[in-house]
Amino acid sequence: ETGVTQSPTHLIKTRGQQVTLRCSSQSGHNTVSWYQQALGQGPQFIFQYYREEENGRGNFPPRFSGLQFPNYSSELNVNALELDDSALYLCASSFDGNYGYTFGSGTRLTVV
Amino acid sequence: QQQVKQSPQSLIVQKGGIPIINCAYENTAFDYFPWYQQFPGKGPALLIAIRPDVSEKKEGRFTISFNKSAKQFSLHIMDSQPGDSATYFCAALEYGNKLVFGAGTILRVKS
How far off is chain B from A19, nearest CA to CA, in Å? Predict the structure, then answer.
């Protein structure tokens, strides 16, 4: 059984650029959620995808968008990057949105 | 606003001690309360979780105590070891899809 894998592990972008982060769900999981974790804080919910449809969204602006593919992998896209977008971005997967969420190791995004 | 309040921010205990981390919540729609352990450079890993109809749950050295009327829950780590040094997060699941995390507790177990 494979866990949740995220790529890339680290990324440096310039303010105003766009970025795409990728996540492969744990085998058998069809639900994926994305979280933003600023340094020294708890993760904050961005949104969730279930069977390729958005299934809940946190308090993030529309420049944060996502996709889920038929194989249940997912992308997080962030447009018009701001300095405050610098954070660890975490992907978590589960089966049918059930309670056992498994997190990946995250992508560390730095915006300069 | 912070929906799940966690304390303390940091904690130092001697090896073999029993660190206790506390969380409080307001939203009665929360129906699942997990604890996560996070090491530097890693994602959170699920330690143990509880539903609100249970007052206590033990898994190995980890115990959750849950007080539904007070809207509080806590994590106890028995016989703590230096390898338990990590950041611990309580969380609560809202509407079945959104985990709301506390701010985290940095635990250091001294050998």
Answer: 20
